[in-house]
């Protein structure tokens, strides 16, 4: 059995937006190093973080491979399909879906409405038998159960000690097909993936997949849900099939569904559920039973249903489908399995922090007075103090304060802009001036207030470099441009990714260019003078060589004559 939590984060996709923190009703998201992490012991598996994540960074545990392996191993794999299926697949008869699932390898396909019928009646029996529990809180929604066990544990005595329809049907399937049956729940709820791992109900259902996962599986195998070819028989409505709509359990139990009835409360949506739970806690809510569903409108608006149809159309489809004949009669009371379930306090103790500790965290993000506490909620917490406490708990980071980080970034930017000796220009892709450093103001002899929002060409005639960077997206490095005769700059221009801005850094190289020209002039003069000296030296050398040559020849003639005279004198 898998022990990993049902929701995790793809770190490569998580991008510091804090949408999941803002969306989580119980703040079960921890942020570390800018990455959002689900804390399983705090999570109620409502999957709201999955719905609101704009980057698709939340990953749902996928049981399909385990189901495929069970089929490949020859196990008796049986599907229990939630009664909200008509809202997703728009089927007219249950056989249409059953045929498609059997084509995947399921040996049998049954309706979870069987379990819903049992659970609905069991709740009615409990209401009649134990008035001391009133108001009894329905236990069919796993998210509501998680919410009570972790955040309202004092209300567990009011929570009906009855399993959900999925577990009830799973237990029935185990006794009907054999204890070694591999039961797969198919529905709209991500929390069901967590529910099957709960110790009190372990073994009733082995895997849970969503409608969206099933559709992907069918598409991959090329299996279509074939429209029915025969007339659909209409019969009296089967109340168990309306279980996924708000008030469905009450209807299944044949209790009074009049919304004006005071002794029964039905509501959906986590905010409304918590409102009811606070009423139960205070003792001010007088009712015999409250039916709570975490998703607004009921299971027909589950986490995988939002991209399909409107909740109202989904409700209509489910109610219409409830009047279709079922392939199997609902079980009798004698066929019921054990429907009992034990619920326990699973709350996490929240540490207490002193005022000095909270103030220290607030001061770290420049909040020194109540006026500094904007309580903007951008970090995901309703107040700056709440976020400070979350920081002390290790659930949040100081840098999650958007106003503080913006002020800090602007301050750092201003420091850089103020101290850099080079001129800095920031323009948009239209080449309109957005920002200018003090050194740029000095270079162009203007003020930012006078030129902001104006075309760059109003102060910089040569804008070709900026235009090239805008058009190509490639940076331009160290290009020398003459702005005016007395001003030459070396410009580097880079695009700001994702912000439609260009940053230009212009370094004044006028003096360098003048020195370079002067050095070039000196070099040319030196070369000319050197060439003249060399030519003069060559001429002198040639003249000396010529004189030396003549003198040498005369000396040789004289010496030859002297030698002959000496020979003649010796009589030789």
Number of strands: 16
Mean pLDDT: 87
State the fourth-level CATH superfamily of the domain at 62-335: Fe-only Hydrogenase (Larger Subunit), Chain L, domain 3
Q: Number of helix segments?
A: 20
Q: Structural class, please? A: alpha/beta
Using the coordinates shown, work out and report the CATH topology of the domain at 62-335: Fe-only Hydrogenase (Larger Subunit), Chain L, domain 3
Helix percentage: 40-55%
Radius of gyration: 43 Å
How would you sum up this structure, described in words?
The structure is a single chain. The protein is α/β, with parallel strands linked by helices. The protein has 20 helices and 16 strands. Among the domains are: 274 residues, Fe-only Hydrogenase (Larger Subunit), Chain L, domain 3 (3-Layer(aba) Sandwich); 89 residues, 2-Layer Sandwich (Beta-Lactamase). Strands 13-12-16-15-14 form a five-stranded antiparallel sheet, with helices on both faces. A hairpin with a 4-residue loop joins strand 15 and strand 16. The longest helix is centred in the last third of the chain and has 60 residues. The N and C termini lie far apart (134 Å).
Provide key terms for this protein:
572 residues; alpha/beta; Fe-only Hydrogenase (Larger Subunit), Chain L, domain 3; Beta-Lactamase; five-stranded antiparallel sheet; four-stranded parallel sheet
């Amino acid at each position: 059995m898998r022990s990993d939590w049902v929701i995790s984060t793809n770190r490569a996709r998580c991008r510091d937006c804090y949408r999941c923190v803002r969306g989580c009703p119980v703040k079960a998201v921890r942020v570390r190093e800018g990455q959002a992490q689900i804390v399983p012991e705090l999570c109620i598996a409502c999957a709201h973080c999955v719905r609101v994540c704009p980057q698709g960074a939340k990953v749902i545990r996928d049981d399909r491979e385990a189901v495929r392996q069970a089929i490949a191993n020859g196990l008796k794999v049986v599907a229990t399909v939630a009664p909200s299926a008509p809202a997703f697949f728009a089927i007219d008869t249950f056989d249409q879906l059953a045929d498609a699932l059997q084509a995947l390898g399921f040996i049998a396909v049954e309706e979870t409405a069987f379990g819903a019928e049992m659970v609905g009646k069991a709740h009615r029996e409990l209401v009649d038998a134990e008035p001391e529990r009133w108001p009894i809180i329905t236990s069919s929604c796993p998210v509501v159960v998680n919410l009570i066990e972790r955040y309202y544990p004092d209300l567990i005595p009011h929570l009906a000690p009855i399993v959900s329809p999925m577990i009830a049907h799973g237990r029935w399937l185990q006794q009907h097909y054999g204890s070694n049956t591999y039961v797969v729940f198919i529905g709209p709820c991500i929390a069901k993936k967590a529910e099957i791992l709960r110790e009190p109900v372990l073994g009733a259902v082995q895997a849970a997949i969503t409608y969206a996962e099933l559709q992907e599986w069918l598409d991959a195998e090329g299996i279509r849900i074939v429209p029915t070819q025969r007339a659909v028989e209409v019969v009296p409505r089967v109340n168990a099939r309306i279980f996924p709509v708000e008030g469905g359990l009450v209807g299944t139990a044949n209790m009074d569904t009049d919304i004006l009835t005071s002794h029964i409360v039905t509501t959906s949506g986590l905010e409304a559920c918590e409102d009811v739970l606070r009423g139960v806690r205070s003792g001010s809510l007088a009712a015999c039973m409250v039916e709570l569903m975490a998703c607004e409108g009921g299971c027909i608006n589950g986490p995988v249903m939002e991209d399909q149809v409107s909740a109202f159309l989904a409700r209509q489809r489910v109610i219409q489908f409830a009047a279709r004949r079922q392939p199997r009669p609902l079980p009798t009371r004698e066929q019921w399995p054990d429907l009992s379930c034990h619920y326990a306090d699973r709350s996490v103790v929240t540490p207490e922090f002193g005022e000095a500790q909270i103030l220290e965290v607030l001061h770290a993000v420049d909040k020194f007075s109540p006026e500094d506490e904007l309580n903007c909620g951008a970090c995901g917490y309703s107040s700056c103090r709440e976020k400070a406490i979350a920081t002390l708990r290790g659930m949040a980071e100081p840098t999650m304060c958007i106003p503080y980080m913006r002020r800090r970034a602007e301050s750092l930017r201003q420091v850089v802009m103020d101290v850099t000796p080079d001129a800095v220009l920031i323009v948009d892709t239209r080449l309109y001036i957005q920002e200018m450093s003090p050194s740029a103001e000095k270079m162009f002899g203007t003020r930012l207030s006078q030129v902001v929002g104006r075309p760059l060409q109003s102060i910089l005639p040569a804008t070709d470099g900026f235009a090239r960077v805008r058009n190509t997206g490639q940076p331009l490095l160290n290009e020398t441009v003459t702005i005016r005769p007395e001003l030459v700059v070396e410009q580097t221009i880079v695009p700001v990714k994702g912000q439609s801005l260009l940053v230009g850094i212009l370094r004044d190289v006028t003096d360098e260019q003048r020195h370079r020209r002067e050095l070039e002039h000196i070099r040319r003069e030196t070369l000319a003078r050197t060439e003249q000296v060399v030519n003069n030296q060559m001429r002198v050398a040639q003249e000396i060589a010529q004189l030396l040559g003549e003198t040498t020849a005369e000396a040789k003639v004289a010496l030859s004559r002297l030698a002959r005279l000496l020979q003649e004198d010796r009589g030789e």
